[in-house]
């Protein structure tokens, strides 16, 4: 499975961005898509997950500000990020996993929150 992430950029504090991640290849219908992020000097952390059935989960730090969604017909997952803070600055990675044991990482997209 190949993942292509896009949508990162520079945004002012309080602003919004939407990340996209398109999956291609041997996608199993029962899968979990996720967004992770890695800030400079920190470990990669889980931001949000969404199952193929639409169940979601969020890190406490982004609850109420970020929304993960997916379009199964397009094999694409999105991360809508609102009320962005400087501490949200990170490289964001999408991740795929399925019940056959296949996992894959996208290439990362940089989000910078700064005035």
Describe this protein's structure:
The protein is mainly beta. The chain has strands spanning 2-6, 9-11, 17-24, 31-38, 45-51, 56-58, 66-71, 76-81, 90-98, 103-105, 109-113. Strands 2, 4, 5, 6, 9, 10 and 11 form a 7-stranded mixed beta sheet that branches. Strands 1-3-8-7 form a 4-stranded antiparallel beta sheet, with no helix packed on it. A hairpin with a 4-residue loop joins strand 9 (90-98) and strand 10 (103-105). The mean pLDDT is 96.
Short structural summary:
This protein is mainly β and 115 residues long.
The average pLDDT is 96
Termini separation (Å)?
A: 37 Å
Report the structural category.
mainly beta
User: What's the alpha carbon Rg, rounded to whole Å?
Assistant: 13 Å
Helix content bin: under 10%
Give a count of the beta strands, DSSP E runs of length 2 or more. Answer: 11
Low-confidence stretches: none
Largest sheet: 7 strands, mixed
Enumerate how many helices there are, as a single number.
Answer: 0
Into which percentage range does the β-strand content fall? Answer: over 45%
Overall spatial form: globular
The SSE string, one letter per element, is EEEEEEEEEEE
């Amino acid at each position: 499975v190949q993942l292509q992430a896009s949508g990162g950029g520079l945004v002012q504090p309080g602003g919004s961005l939407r990340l996209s991640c398109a999956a291609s290849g041997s996608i199993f219908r029962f899968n979990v898509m996720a967004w992770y992020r890695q800030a400079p000097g920190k470990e990669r952390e889980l931001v949000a997950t969404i199952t193929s059935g639409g169940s979601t989960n969020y890190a406490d730090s982004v609850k109420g500000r970020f929304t993960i969604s997916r379009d199964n017909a397009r094999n694409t997952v999105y991360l809508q990020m609102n009320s962005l803070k400087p501490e949200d600055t990170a490289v964001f990675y999408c991740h795929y996993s399925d019940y056959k044991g296949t996992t894959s990482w996208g290439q990362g997209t940089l989000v910078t929150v700064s005035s």
